TrEMBL record:
A family per Pfam: EamA
Transmembrane regions: 7-27, 39-60, 72-93, 99-117, 129-147, 153-173, 185-203, 223-244, 256-273, 279-299
Cross-referenced InterPro entries: AA-Vitamin_Transporters (IPR050638), EamA_dom (IPR000620), EmrE-like (IPR037185)
Recorded family membership: Belongs to the EamA transporter family.
Membrane topology qualifier: Multi-pass membrane protein
Name listed for the protein in its UniProt record: Permease of the drug/metabolite transporter (DMT) superfamily
Highest classification ranks of the organism: Bacteria, Bacillati, Bacillota, Bacilli, Bacillales
Keyword set, alphabetical order: Cell membrane, Membrane, Transmembrane, Transmembrane helix
Organism this protein belongs to: Bacillus mojavensis
Keyword flag Glycoprotein: no
Record domain EamA: where: 8-141, 154-295
Main location: membrane
């Protein structure tokens, strides 16, 4: 049973990386019709609506109390609220290449936080493989070229805060998934995203007097397709998958899978957008794959006693 649960967790982490990797393609489509914060608001509105439908029909039972919401609130604020907010504002002052390099450090931060707060111990070999996967991502972005002229301390700090938010989420969710049911965590996270990003978007529109254009992007079929993918799959499903994986594997192992999204994005660009594939893409991809496999290998002895995993998840 333990091996089956481990296999399911790794499959969830892999599916999570696949969905996130393809999401960049749909973000590009959505950006043709709406601004970043409007996209975030609409995607989490759809995510929250999709999460609410099974609850309304009684397919999913939630037993959420106010004290549960208050306990989960810090986790939901870390991701999606702070993660996406810092990222969106950071990209105003930094290039996507700079952001990609900084956010590649998430597994390193996660490993440090998990070791301190969760007492997760990794071997030097696992640390080395994690660094290798980080180096693979950085290598691809560096070879693509970093626009130095766009460099900004403010942008770098905001992107760094986004990476720290993600690492702290990976660490905090590891404990929360042992305390709460996965659907409860996912539902509250979607609700927080819905409230936060709609509030930000509406305040921005109110300040500029453009509230009447808030739903204009839905006139475009391409935007509807993109927002359905981003809302249902890239927000709701990935939240559930990441929480599921974190309930069964170590936080630093889960975070290493995030780098596979870079490979998926790269392949999608070549196949769908007809972008060119250079040698450094392949070299970086090899480093990422080896790093992820190595960091997740059973290189350290497991404790003989494992915490019992709730069967209702």
């Amino acid at each position: 049973m333990y091996k089956n649960q481990q296999t399911s967790a790794y499959l969830a982490a892999l599916l999570n990386a696949l969905i996130i990797g393809l999401s960049f393609l749909f973000v590009k489509i959505a950006l043709q019709s709406a601004e970043p914060f409007d996209i975030l608001a609409h995607r989490f509105t759809l995510a929250f609506a999709a999460a609410t439908i099974p609850v309304l029909f009684g397919w999913v039972k939630l037993s959420i109390r106010l004290k549960d919401v208050m306990a989960i609130l810090p986790l939901a604020l870390l991701y999606p609220a702070l993660f996406f907010s810092f990222q969106a504002f950071g990209l105003v002052y930094s290039s996507s290449s700079e952001a990609g390099i900084i956010q590649a450090s998430i597994p390193i931060f996660t490993m440090v936080f998990a070791a301190y707060f969760l007492k997760e111990r990794s071997t030097w070999a696992q640390k080395g493989f994690t660094v290798l996967s980080v180096a693979g991502v950085m290598f691809i972005f560096v070879m693509k070229g970093v626009n130095v002229e766009s460099a900004s301390l403010k942008g770098s700090v905001l992107i760094l805060l986004s990476a720290l938010s993600s690492a702290m989420y990976n660490t905090a969710a590891r404990k929360m998934t042992q305390r709460f049911r996965l659907m409860e965590l996912t539902y509250i996270m979607s609700a927080i995203g819905f409230v936060v990003f709609n509030a930000i978007a509406l305040v921005r529109h109110g300040a500029s007097g453009t509230v009447g254009t808030y739903f204009h992007p839905f006139r475009e079929p391409g935007f509807i397709l993109a927002i359905v993918y981003l809302g249902v799959l890239s927000s709701l499903v990935t939240s559930f998958m990441s929480n599921y994986a974190l309930s069964r594997i170590e936080a630093f192992k889960m975070s290493a899978f995030n780098h596979l999204s870079t490979i998926v994005t790269m392949i999608a660009g070549v196949v769908i957008l007809n972008e060119s594939l250079a040698w450094y893409h392949l070299a970086g991809a090899v480093c990422i794959i080896i790093g992820v496999l190595g960091s997740n290998a059973g290189l350290r002895k497991r404790k003989q006693t494992e915490k019992t995993i709730s069967m209702n998840r």
